[in-house]
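WARN no homologs supplied; continuing
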Amino acid sequence: MLNKITTADARKKFSNIINRVAFGDESFVLTRRGKPIAALVSMKGLEMLQDNDDQIAVEDAWKAKNVPGEPIPWEDLKKELEL
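OK structure emitted
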């Protein structure tokens, strides 16, 4: 369940909101002047987001692997990326 709350209200109800996120499997979107600025999610929710992001990165890497072209030498890439 996704709830919206202003940052001012979140400050007033911080411990309650944290408990609802941590133990109630709820999520909150923090707003300021009516615009979303941050989100509070449980650790389980964060892990799911990270796993999903990792899966997308793997899929993108496989797609990039199949793109035709000449390989770029590692030393050239480091220079280009200023590493």
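The mean pLDDT is 89.
OK
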